[in-house]
DNA sequence: TAAATAGTGTCTCTTAGACATTATGGT
DNA sequence: ACCATAATGTCTAAGAGACACTATTTA
């Protein structure tokens, strides 16, 4: 049997093949809203997702995750990054793969297997874009609102639920908090970001834990200026707070020891 | 614009669509080989992967991961389970999604986006099958051997590498060890299974850690018989060893406290 | 001086980690 | 008696967890 025979016998023409393989992106951001109490205080933070309103069939007029079809010449991740930039203008952000959504009938256009990604975007990057193009209707919605009260296109509610569940887990198990923080931050800010994503996170002695346990010492370090002096910030408090920065180290986690 | 117009305008016919969406499965098992020293001792364990030899183009004659194309009527996970059963006869096993492999050119048959799964299979289930059908040439290979010394079809080396990396992480962060153990096991066995998957895992006081720390108490418990008596085993040692069983509880992991 | 956040002192109990020691029962 | 595995004793240092307390600056 020649190779061309083989090749012909494997031709996909005789099988039903998928009608498309899009990437959909759950874009998370944390908005900051200054309290107007006059006094310095930590801003109110809220976890939000970016949605776009569909302009065409199917689910015309409904809110949906941004995304679009992959091309033969790109990997799925490239597709996700391209769509992310096309639809929101943001690039070079933290993007992670969430999973495949392939339930039959999930898309009325046919057999369409979707790949979901999570993007964690600093509000600053997103706000810049919001003003820039208003050609497409986009919106930022509180995650709870979007999950509970909105009717979403396709299986996007399920995807969002999975994405939310994943970043809650990751928020505690990794240093993704840095995606929502400036390079140098106070422990108060970090604590607040964590609680914004994981409402149940109550750590009384948060500062103590970070600063006094050796096993977590390596994760972040005190920020210092050119002279080696410790840097502090009075952005959110009267008393100057020590600034910290992530080192890049993430400890391995184990349930056995 | 009528819906059929919309529908027509979205027809996938005018776009290039994928030529297939297969699932490939990395089947891990741990083989047990009794030492023939005569004395009772823990068996030698080894982490292995199951591969099949390809019978046709492309990569004819080369070893590859078992797998096959998804149908329009099934989810990817169903595809993976179906292929797993078709090719190895095992069912109802622990299966987890690994990720999508979509690099252009990864499959000479066309634009084929593959979905990788990990299956963790108890040797007993696999051995039963091995004898049953030898129509297809299958083989169990030590993971290091497969990764370092074998030429594999497609991007299957990369998939295997990712799968190995993932189960090493999961072995420490979850209770997947139970997939390789009988329902009741000794701490010696558990320790050995963990070290088989994670060679670097050296926990001197393993028994002590499991039995004396409150935070890990809930993960497993002493096995008891109908009368509530503690059960022990002398399968691997002279001195009877306490049997344990997993409770199903998995503690949340956090780097912050 | 009240408000708001940052950070320390102090105490108790638990855990980590290292090493030595004992236990069990067959060859 | 020796072996391989199982399990405990003992000690020290470190961490967890709770709560009260002090620190810093501005409205």
TrEMBL record, chains A, B:
Q: Does the keyword Hydrolase apply?
A: yes
Q: Which PROSITE patterns match?
A: NUDIX, NUDIX_BOX
One MF term from GO for this chain? hydrolase activity
**Protein name per its UniProtKB record:** ADP-ribose pyrophosphatase
One Pfam annotation reads WHD_NrtR
Q: Which family does it belong to?
A: Belongs to the Nudix hydrolase family.
The Nudix hydrolase domain is annotated at 18-164
**Lineage from the top down?**
Bacteria, Bacillati, Bacillota, Bacilli, Bacillales
Ordered alphabetically, the record's keywords are:
Hydrolase
């Amino acid at each position: 049997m020649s190779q061309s025979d083989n090749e012909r016998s494997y031709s996909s023409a005789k099988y039903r093949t998928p009608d498309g393989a899009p990437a959909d992106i759950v874009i998370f951001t944390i908005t900051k809203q200054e309290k107007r109490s006059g006094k310095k205080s930590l801003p109110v933070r809220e976890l939000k997702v970016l949605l776009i309103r569909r302009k065409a069939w199917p689910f015309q007029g409904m809110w949906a995750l941004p995304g679009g079809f992959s091309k033969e010449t790109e990997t799925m991740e490239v597709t996700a990054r391209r769509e992310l930039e096309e639809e929101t203008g943001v690039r070079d952000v933290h993007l992670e793969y969430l999973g495949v959504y392939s339930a039959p009938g999930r898309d009325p256009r046919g057999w369409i297997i979707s790949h979901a990604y999570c993007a964690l975007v600093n509000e600053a990057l997103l706000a810049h874009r919001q003003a820039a193009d208003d050609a497409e209707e986009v919106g930022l919605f509180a995650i709870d609102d979007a999950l509970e009260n909105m009717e979403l296109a396709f299986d996007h509610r399920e995807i969002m639920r999975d994405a939310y569940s994943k970043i809650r887990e990751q928020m505690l198990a990794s240093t993704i908090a840095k995606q929502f923080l400036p390079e140098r931050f106070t422990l108060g800010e970090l604590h607040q970001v964590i609680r914004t994503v994981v409402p149940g996170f109550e750590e009384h002695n948060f500062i103590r834990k970070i600063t006094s346990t050796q096993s977590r010492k390596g994760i972040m370090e005190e920020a210092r200026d050119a002279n080696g002096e410790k840097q502090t910030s009075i952005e959110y408090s009267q008393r100057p707070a020590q600034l910290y920065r992530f080192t890049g180290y993430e400890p391995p986690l184990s349930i056995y020891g």
